[in-house]
UniProtKB/TrEMBL annotation:
Protein name: Catalase
Protein function: Decomposes hydrogen peroxide into water and oxygen; serves to protect cells from the toxic effects of hydrogen peroxide.
Keywords: Heme, Hydrogen peroxide, Iron, Metal-binding, Oxidoreductase, Peroxidase
Family, per entry: Belongs to the catalase family.
Pfam families referenced in this protein's UniProt entry, alphabetically: Catalase (PF00199), Catalase-rel (PF06628)
Annotated active site: 56, 134
Region listing for Disordered, in residue ranges: 496-531
GO biological process: hydrogen peroxide catabolic process; response to hydrogen peroxide
Length: 531
């Protein structure tokens, strides 16, 4: 590190002493609205591109319906949630789905090695529910304040306008929690064969809330009834040479011939508590919930049976947000979910306009038509009025304006207590373990493809980055690290001689180095009280 490196600051010139963590109430508590550094960072990030999406720019969409089984596994769905979209059988809820790649631009190839977006807008009788996730069940980072940095590292170099492997791994080398996701993405699972044959996941943790106000932590997954199919790098290159939009073509052609894609909707459930018995925090979206402990429980099915009439009007202008929930489905304190809930809707207001929810593809169904006191703004073409008196656009009123809906019989309440500060999770044992487990779970051909991709990438990286990545992979699995080192011509002994990263978890342990933990916060508070 050179001595003349400048200090990172905010746009206001304030020095940034912690660029890793949101301010939250305790280690696992909710983020706070006064997260000025994060809000400035994420809202500026949301405005970096126009008109296409900053991420998930390349996409395809289709209309269809969701049909609930009325059960979650072998239990009535009402035991866990009061959301009618999940409890009422025989009801076909209309929906719109948008599939996408993440990093590439609007016209990038659909064979890219990249996570795939899987966003579903349920138009329920109680209003819209947006479930916005990816094809894989995890993510690269667990704190939303890192999202702009991550995307900047994965996007093209600002000088050369080329995606460079060293930039990607320079970021990953500093974030061991990303090793799990990178192991997935660099394997054949990083290139789904098409949209019909890939899984989907909420990635984030939500809560299901029942009529008694009891909550359970929940993760949602889509399982394709067509089966899962992925591509090797060679197969993807052969397809890309002929067709850069093969996945869009496959989706539209399947619907046109009546071969409607179908997925089973499943949920994993966990009691609403910290689960200290686990080596990871269930709110950490870089970790999978083990299915032997938390099985995928069927909830319903989704069928896509109609292609869009106009790509721009329906696919390009479709807008999703993780904050769009219906009663019976609630937020957890997942820090990525909390950050996405601000960012996603903020992006749509900037990209599409203040009245993006008036567009037919985004508007709720007629039974749940919007009635608000929000007025005007760019591109307003009707008024969401519903009161008896058109002159009253405020609430409360005695003159016939809109009124509040009745409260649920038993509301969900969460007790929150803790010291306000910036926290990194201390439960990091599985940052390496889950990546190693994933490597060992792959079939031989999947491991071979993964190693080939890693070796090619390491050959493009400067020596310090390549050595550190081999160190990481070896600590995930010795065979993993050894094969990458041998293939890329990297000295394994030199890599293993590296010390652990400062302020990052050591393999198999908890967070190393100085960090502001809940215990330190409590000790600090007691010290000040004594003074």
């Amino acid at each position: 590190m050179t001595e003349d490196r400048k200090v990172l600051t905010t746009r206001q010139g304030h020095p940034v002493y912690d660029n890793q963590s949101l301010r939250s109430v305790g280690e696992r508590g909710p983020a706070t609205l006064e997260n000025y550094q994060f809000i400035e960072k994420i809202t500026h990030f949301d405005r970096e591109r126009i008109p296409e999406r900053v991420v998930h720019a390349r996409g395809a969409g289709a209309h269809g319906y969701f049909e609930a089984y009325g059960r979650i596994g072998n239990e009535p769905a009402s035991r866990y949630t009061r959301a009618r979209v999940l409890t009422e059988t025989g009801v076909k809820t209309p929906l719109f789905v948008r599939f996408s790649t993440v990093i590439g631009s609007k016209d990038s190839p659909e064979t890219a090695r990249d996570p795939r977006g899987f966003a579903v807008k349920f138009k329920t009788v109680d209003g819209n529910w947006d479930l916005v996730g990816n094809n894989l069940r995890i993510f690269f980072i667990r704190d939303a304040i890192k999202f702009p940095d991550m995307i900047h590292a994965f996007k093209p170099d600002p000088v050369t306008n080329r995606q460079e492997a060293w930039r990607f791994y320079d970021f990953v080398a500093h974030h061991p929690e990303a090793l799990h996701m990178v192991t997935w993405v660099k394997s054949p699972w990083g290139i789904p064969a098409d949209y019909r044959h890939m899984e989907g996941s909420s990635v984030n943790t939500y809560k299901l809330v029942n009529a008694e106000g009891v909550a359970h932590l929940a993760k949602f997954s889509w399982v394709p009834k067509q089966g899962v199919k992925n591509l090797t790098s060679q197969q993807a290159a052969e397809i890309q040479a002929r067709d850069t939009g093969h996945a869009t073509r496959d989706l539209y052609d399947a619907i046109a011939r009546g071969d409607y894609p179908e997925w089973e909707f499943c949920v994993q459930l966990m009691s609403d508590d910290p689960h200290d018995e686990l080596d990871f925090d269930p709110l950490d979206d870089t970790k999978r919930w083990p299915e032997d402990k938390f099985p995928l429980l069927p909830v319903g099915r989704m069928v896509l049976n109609r292609a869009p009439d106009d790509f721009f009007a329906e696919v390009e202008q479709s807008a999703f947000g993780t904050g769009v929930l219906v009663d019976g489905i609630d937020f957890s304190d997942d820090k990525m979910l909390q950050g996405r809930t601000l960012s996603y809707s903020d992006t749509q207001r900037y990209r599409v306009g203040a009245n993006y929810l008036q567009l037919p593809v985004n508007a709720p169904q007629e039974k749940a038509r919007a009635h608000t006191n929000q007025r005007d703004g760019v591109m307003a073409y009707h008024v969401d009025r519903g009161g008896q008196n058109r002159h009253v656009n405020y609430e409360p009123s005695m003159m016939g304006g809109l009124q509040e809906a009745p409260r649920p019989a038993k509301e969900y309440h969460q007790w929150v207590e803790g010291h306000l500060g910036r926290y990194q999770t201390t439960r990091t044992q599985d940052d390496y373990r889950q990546a190693g487990d994933r490597y060992r779970s792959f079939e031989d051909w999947e491991r071979d493809d993964l190693i080939a991709n890693m070796v090619a990438d390491m050959k493009e990286c400067p020596e310090p980055i390549a050595l550190r990545m081999v160190w990481h992979w070896w600590h995930c699995d010795e065979d993993y690290g050894r094969r990458v080192a041998e293939g890329a011509g990297i000295d394994l002994k030199e890599a293993l001689a590296l010390p652990p990263l400062p302020n990052r978890p050591a393999p198999g342990g908890r967070l190393q180095g100085p960090t502001y933990t809940s215990g330190q916060a409590e000790a600090s508070a007691q010290s000040h009280a004594a003074d």
